[in-house]
Write a structure and sequence with these properties.
With about 270 residues, the chain is an alpha+beta fold. It contains 7 helices and 13 strands. The protein folds into 2 domains: about 5-150, Fructose-1,6-Bisphosphatase, subunit A, domain 1 (Fructose-1,6-Bisphosphatase, Chain A, domain 1), CATH 3.30.540; about 165-269, D-Maltodextrin-Binding Protein, domain 2 (3-Layer(aba) Sandwich), CATH 3.40.190.80.
């Protein structure tokens, strides 16, 4: 039986290789886009190439596992374990050259359904600033950073007296933005300020690292949050994935234990 720490090591090894490929393609892409095709084409190509690398490495290491990726879809598991992968989370940041994008790789027990899976291991790697966030079920969460060094991750114990620093996001569909802004207005009374990082996996790891007090977003896909949600939980944070009815757009909530009840109450109103 493979342990969560062994799965974490595999996720880290592949996330680092895939992240370096993504960063390399971004550097190349800036030159190609300036001379040939739209940068959007470069980004799409990089997304697909990075996911192909991740999928290939996982198949080489664990051929019977299942897979769900943003670009190449899913494959059923023969082992009971499924890998949930976002090859480049924060695609728009990546296209604009904003150094806030990440390879997100998670191993879950069961199928790729956030309502039923047990996350076992996760790695979120931002190659632009060389920051790696990892967690294994029951083993805690850690940050390995060229900026901060290496440390265990633990969310803040108390709700900040000045109000919460809250992250959120807005989906690609402009038709959802008005409702998202209306909902944000109900959250701001408990917030000191808002941060919009632009990559759900980095929003979630920011909560785990104490860089945000809370994060919420409606409409995320399983691959956006699979690794980050485990990292939040192993850092002592609280997390919820609430299926969206009838919109089908689930609500993701992550926060310190002190803030989670109040934020959940506001978002469910
Ligand atoms: C993105 C998320 C972000 C959300 C965007 C998009 P992608 O994922 O990380 O939080 O606001 O709409 O879903 O598309 O960059 O992998």
């Amino acid at each position: 039986m493979t342990t969560p720490l062994e799965l974490q090591s595999l996720a880290v090894e592949i996330a680092r290789e895939a992240g370096e490929l993504a960063a390399h393609r971004r550097r190349e892409g800036v030159n190609i886009a300036a001379t040939k095709s739209a940068l959007a084409d470069i980004v799409t190509e990089a997304d697909r190439e990075v996911e192909e690398l991740v999928r290939r490495r996982l198949h080489e290491a664990r051929p019977g596992d299942g897979f769900l990726g943003e670009e190449s879809g899913g494959a059923d598991s023969e082992t009971g374990l499924t890998w949930v992968v976002d090859p480049i989370d924060g695609t728009v940041n990546y296209a604009y050259g904003i150094p806030a994008y990440a390879v997100s790789i998670a191993a879950v027990q069961g199928s790729a359904d956030p309502a039923t899976w047990q996350a076992l291991a996760g790695a979120v790697f931002n190659p632009a600033i060389d920051e790696l966030f990892v967690a294994a079920h029951g083993e805690g969460a850690r940050l390995v950073s060229s900026i901060e060094g290496e440390r265990a991750l633990r969310v803040a114990a108390e709700a900040p007296a000045a109000g919460a620093l809250v992250g959120t996001g807005f989906g690609y569909d402009p038709a959802t933005h008005a409702a998202a802004l209306d909902q944000l207005a109900t959250v701001m009374p408990i917030a000191r300020d808002l941060r919009r990082i632009g990559a759900a996996s980095l929003d979630l790891t920011a909560v785990a690292a104490g860089r945000l007090d809370a994060y919420y977003e409606r409409g995320l896909h399983p691959w956006d949050m699979a690794a980050g949600s485990l990292i939040v939980a192993e850092a002592g944070g609280r997390f919820a994935w609430i299926p969206g009815h009838p919109s089908g757009r689930a609500m993701t909530i992550a926060a310190t234990p002190a803030l989670f009840p109040r934020l959940s109450e506001i978002l469910s109103a």
